[in-house]
């Protein structure tokens, strides 16, 4: 469940995306222009031979008399706290025939408890402005809040009330069942999910892992509130829970506070835990039609789980198989596969490993299938290179050092280690990784790469047709607005949340402009001994690619993977592995490196960005892969949906409607590529953000030494799309035979940009309308009606244009009423001012959200890159905070009336 779009954490609906990141990245390639057709999953951040010590303070922990464990890990990155309540139960403990019971109960935990009803819970979450979410896996159910540090007491009280007094009424379950069944329909509409679900049923047949945690519509139809109450009483007890608290807190005070809140809750006897004892796997070949732009071959095997003695060895093997110096990746530069990767999905008591390779739509996959099998057979028979094992071991050891760079990520790593793996702390993995030898890895490879134990699947693209234009829809059906009444918060929440305080300014980063025009932004953060760099060359292929050369920007970007003028591809990657760094170059570039190796890493990044090799042979391979991928992508429903949205809100022949053609791509030359690089890659269009354990002076000195000699030639190119006129109502359908549920986008162009002061009012109004569980759209389309599982409204900004969209997924029969309800809510925002309670909640959410952007180094860098891309000042956050704090309901109403046009919203539907 996803109660807040800000949540970057996992949730049940994207559980498989968390478990299979490579596979889902490959599948999601269909929703964009396949900008890196030769992509393979980059390795996770690399590491030294011994674990680096984070600068976080020592954790404080205790076990209460009722058996509940509490662990507090201070992190001074920002005035933010994350609480993560881990219940040691998941779908494996569900009653036979009801695989979604744990998932259903996770949903009901947001439906209210004694002393805190569902409206109060939603209002508190909105006012805290943080991330609040939950996820269910086979072995655990986790509930987490990320919020301003001063709201720790509120988050703890919420968890205590839910642990001991959940309402679980028949009426609430009836409403929530409709929403959860929409979630099931959405996931069943994904061929990738269907494959993973089928795979799990084969690898873990006749065990509690046979089904994933999602559940099925038939089982939910047979589930009642009494069954959920039994599951709750059996498992949701303090002696079956571990609370992790991370962030800017006084550990002793936080522990004393948590002890006072949770100690009165009684322990309960727990049922026997399920056992997972899967039998032998019979090799199978599966076929799945998909709506993806490329085909996929997946060879899957069972692997050790997170509690197994061989878990560390399995992780190292997975890293080796994913290495860009490995045999799987070699298939890409050799022109044998469009994409490759390896996913290791460890569950508590077993795991899954999947080797992947992609082929063009319409191509016979048999040759690639045999090549992939042969590659795995050679690895099984002859083992893996020992230096790749060393690199993987260093990588895993250093992962611990990066955890402190995100407060919520730190809570997640501790929860994973303690609640799922049964360890004392994440550091307990260090000795296990350090002891893994090449012999251990090869022993495990011989077991898990055995073709007699593998399940092979071929996911084949099929065209679902072209968009069908239609007339704009008429008037909306009647949809009564819900009663407008303030929500009275519990007494313990009123003090912190009922009164808005003037925003505290966020300190400015250090900002420099080099003589060549490069913009450097430095934000020191001494929470770990690591440094992260993120860079961007402002580009727009729609404006910068010469006529007839559509696709040249993507090819150029991909060629950065093929080495520099001083290092070939393999030696360049080895140089990164030697210092445990992760790097990427191109129009967007990045570097993650240990602080003591920052200079070495930066020199490698600069060499790649400023002196790419662009080898002739690699160009031919990348061009072929691009053309082959493009042929399938142009027919894929996700691409056609995106293009239909662009066409609906843009004038004919708008530059954004340019698209590449496979035949023309094959006519592009290496000379074209070099010319595009020389014209589009310029320091005066480049921004670099550096965060982490570094001083501004050292960062500036290092960037001057590596990027200072870079100079632009020729006139500055036009990068920004021109302003566009107002769009008008239309309807388009994108057939998708693979989907069980319609995906709907309502869209229109807007006549202002992010530099217009009204954009603050629109943002505040949109927070009340469509951003979060307490929003009007969520309330009217999900909570009150069950039309949809998720709905969101979104404002998109560019330097010279903007757009407004509402997106939701629904069964075909519910699309019309959901659309009409959404349009009604937009019109009501124009006709009436927000109520005082709504206005206050929206303000609190946005004001707190601005401070939460400082809770991870990634989000800090992303914020500054976003501002740079829009040409906004770096103190825009402080400007926004002041605008939100002082804004009136009439300001919001006027902005919505001036800029939004409900009658002009186009409707684009992708589905069956």
UniProtKB/TrEMBL annotation:
The keyword Repeat does not apply. Residues 1-40 form the signal peptide. Residues 225-394, 667-846 form the Peptidase M16 C-terminal domain. SUPFAM superfamilies: LuxS/MPP-like metallohydrolase. The keyword Hydrolase applies. Residues 41-58 have a biased composition (Low complexity). Residues 79-215 form the Peptidase M16 N-terminal domain. InterPro entries: Metalloenz_LuxS/M16, MPP/UQCRC_Complex, Pept_M16_N, Peptidase_M16_C. Residues 39-58 are annotated as: Disordered. Gene3D superfamilies: Metalloenzyme, LuxS/M16 peptidase-like. Keywords: Hydrolase, Metalloprotease, Protease, Signal. Pfam families: Peptidase_M16, Peptidase_M16_C. It comes from the Bacteria. Belongs to the peptidase M16 family. PANTHER family: METALLOPROTEASE, MITOCHONDRIAL-PROCESSING PEPTIDASE SUBUNIT ALPHA. This is Insulinase family protein.
């Amino acid at each position: 469940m996803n109660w807040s779009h800000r949540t970057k954490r996992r949730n049940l609906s994207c559980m498989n995306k968390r478990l299979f990141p490579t596979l889902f990245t490959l599948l999601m390639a269909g929703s964009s222009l396949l900008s890196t057709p030769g992509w393979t999953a980059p390795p996770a951040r690399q590491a030294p031979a011994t674990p680096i010590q984070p600068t976080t303070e020592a954790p404080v922990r205790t076990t209460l008399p009722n058996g509940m464990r509490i662990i507090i890990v201070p992190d001074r990155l920002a005035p933010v706290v994350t609480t993560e309540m881990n219940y040691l139960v998941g779908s494996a403990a569900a009653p036979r025939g009801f695989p979604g019971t744990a998932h259903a109960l996770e949903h009901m935990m947001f439906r209210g408890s004694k002393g805190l009803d569902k409206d109060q819970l939603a209002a508190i979450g909105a006012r805290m402005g943080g991330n609040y979410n939950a996820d269910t896996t086979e072995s655990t159910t986790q509930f987490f809040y990320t919020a301003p540090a001063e709201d720790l007491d509120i988050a703890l009280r919420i968890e205590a009330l839910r642990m001991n007094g959940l309402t679980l009424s028949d009426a609430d379950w009836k409403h929530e069942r409709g929403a959860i069944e929409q979630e099931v329909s959405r996931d069943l509409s994904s061929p990738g999910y269907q494959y993973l679900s089928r795979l799990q049923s084969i690898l873990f047949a006749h065990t509690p892992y046979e089904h994933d945690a999602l559940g099925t519509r038939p089982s939910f139809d047979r589930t009642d509130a009494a069954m959920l109450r039994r599951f709750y009483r059996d498992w949701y007890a303090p002696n079956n829970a571990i609370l992790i608290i991370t962030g800017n807190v006084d550990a002793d005070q936080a522990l004393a506070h948590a002890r006072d809140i949770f100690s009165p809750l009684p322990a309960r006897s727990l049922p026997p835990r399920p056992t997972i004892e899967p039998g032998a796997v019979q090799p199978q070949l599966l076929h799945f039609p998909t709506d993806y732009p490329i085909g996929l071959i997946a060879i899957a095997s069972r692997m050790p789980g997170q509690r197994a003695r061989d878990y560390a060895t399995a992780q190292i093997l997975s890293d080796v198989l994913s290495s860009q110096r490995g045999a799987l990746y070699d298939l890409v530069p050799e022109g044998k596969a469009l994409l490759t990767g390896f996913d290791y999905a460890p569950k508590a008591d077993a795991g899954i490993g999947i080797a992947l390779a992609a082929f063009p739509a319409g191509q016979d996959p048999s040759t690639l299938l045999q090549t992939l099998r042969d590659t795995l057979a050679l690895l099984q028979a002859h083992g893996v290179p020992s230096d790749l094992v060393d690199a993987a071991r260093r990588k895993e050891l250093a992962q611990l050092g990066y955890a402190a760079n995100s407060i919520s990520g730190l809570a997640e790593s501790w929860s994973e280690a303690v609640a799922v793996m049964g360890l004392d702390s994440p550091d307990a993995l260090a000795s296990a990784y350090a002891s893994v030898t090449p012999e251990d890895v090869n022993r495990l490879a011989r077991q898990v790469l055995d073709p007699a134990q593998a399940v092979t699947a071929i996911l084949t693209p099929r065209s679902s047709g072209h968009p069908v234009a239609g007339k704009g829809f008429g008037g909306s059906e009647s949809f009564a607005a819900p009663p407008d009444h303030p929500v009275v918060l519990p007494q313990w929440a009123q003090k912190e949340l009922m009164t808005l305080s003037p925003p505290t300014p966020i300190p400015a980063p250090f900002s420099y402009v080099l003589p060549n025009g490069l913009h450097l932004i430095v934000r020191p953060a001494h929470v770990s001994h690591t440094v992260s760099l993120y860079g961007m060359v402002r580009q727009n292929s729609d404006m910068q690619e010469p006529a007839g050369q559509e696709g040249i920007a993507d090819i150029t970007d991909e060629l950065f993977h093929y080495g520099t003028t001083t290092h070939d591809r393999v030696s360049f990657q080895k140089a990164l592995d030697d210092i445990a760094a992760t790097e990427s170059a191109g129009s967007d570039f990045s570097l993650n490196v240990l602080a003591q190796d920052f200079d070495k890493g930066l020199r490698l990044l600069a060499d790649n960005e400023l002196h790419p090799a662009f080898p002739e042979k690699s160009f031919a391979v990348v061009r072929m892969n691009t053309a082959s991928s493009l042929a399938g992508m142009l027919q894929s429903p996700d691409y056609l949906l995106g293009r239909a949205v662009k066409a609906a809100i843009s004038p004919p022949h708008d530059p954004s409607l340019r698209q590449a053609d496979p035949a023309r791509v094959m006519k592009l030359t290496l000379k074209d590529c070099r010319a595009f690089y020389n014209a589009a890659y310029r320091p005066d269009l480049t921004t670099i953000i550096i965060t982490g354990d570094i001083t501004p002076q050292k960062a500036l000195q290092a960037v001057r030494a590596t990027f200072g000699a870079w100079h632009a030639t020729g006139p500055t190119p036009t990068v920004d799309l021109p302003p566009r006129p107002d769009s008008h109502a239309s309807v388009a359908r994108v057939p998708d035979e693979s989907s069980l549920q319609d995906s709907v986008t309502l869209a229109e162009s807007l006549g202002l940009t992010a530099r217009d002061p009204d954009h603050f009012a629109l943002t505040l109004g949109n927070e009340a309308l469509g951003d979060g569980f307490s929003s009007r759209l969520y309330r009217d389309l999900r909570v009150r009606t069950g039309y949809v599982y998720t709905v969101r409204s979104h404002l998109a900004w560019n330097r010279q244009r903007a757009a407004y969209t509402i997106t939701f997924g629904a069964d075909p029969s519910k699309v019309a009423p959901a659309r009409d309800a959404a349009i009604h809510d937009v019109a009501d925002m124009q006709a009436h001012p927000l109520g005082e309670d709504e206005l206050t909640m929206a303000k609190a959410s946005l004001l707190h959200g601005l401070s939460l952007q400082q809770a991870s180094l990634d989000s800090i860098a992303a914020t500054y890159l976003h501002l740079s891309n829009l040409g906004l000042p770096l103190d825009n956050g402080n400007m926004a905070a002041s605008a939100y704090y002082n804004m009136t309901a009439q300001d919001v109403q006027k902005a919505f009336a001036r800029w939004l046009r409900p009658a002009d919203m186009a409707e684009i539907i992708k589905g069956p």
